[in-house]
Amino acid sequence: MALARTTIDIDLMILSESTEAAIAIAEDLGYTIRGMDLSFKDARLRFRRVSQVDRRPEIFCRWIFLLVTPELREIWDSRTNAEWEGGNLSVVTREGLIRLKRWRKSGQDLADIEALEGEQR
Predict the structure, then answer these.
(1) Which of 34, 81, 90, 112 is the most buried (most CB within 10 A)?
(2) Are 96 and 116 in contact (CB under 8 A)?
(3) With contact defined as beta carbons under 8 Å apart, do 19 and 34 qualify?
(4) Is 24 found in the same domain as 3?
């Protein structure tokens, strides 16, 4: 009987010039499985992926780095700060997240947009 596997994706938006440093940090944390580099929508969406299999074999963790392209610069520049576990995180705004999801338009992205827009009402 095969184990059910849970995939955990952590999406991080980074400047292109930070790619090597971000991947090095991920590798230091055990994310040593490099995924294929991906580009969508005429390269306005560019991704770099690193993964690890958790100590529990049923969990697969993946960091997905979304590189800031000229088309994404406005979303990057409009980030906001959020407190989390005693520290600060720089996060995209709800509007920025909706814009990103509209470009990608996967089934999950469309469901996420509906939920995000519903929360605004």
Answers:
(1) 112
(2) no
(3) no
(4) yes
With H, G, I as helix, E, B as strand and everything else as coil, classify residue 35. coil
* One domain, residues 31 and 51: yes
DSSP one-letter code for 107: H
Q: What is the DSSP string of 10-21?
A: EEEEEEGGGHHH
Contacts of 77 by beta carbon, 8 Å cutoff, 6+ apart: none
pTM: 0.80
Task: Report the number of distinct structural domains present in the chain.
Answer: 2
What distance separates the 2 farthest-apart alpha carbons in the chain? Answer: 48
Give the pLDDT means over successive 10-residue stretches in the chain (121 positions): 76 93 93 86 81 78 92 94 93 92 84 86 59
Rounded-to-integer distance, Cα 95 and Cα 101, Å = 10
Cα–Cα distance measured from residue 43 to residue 101, given in angstroms and rounded to the nearest whole number:
15
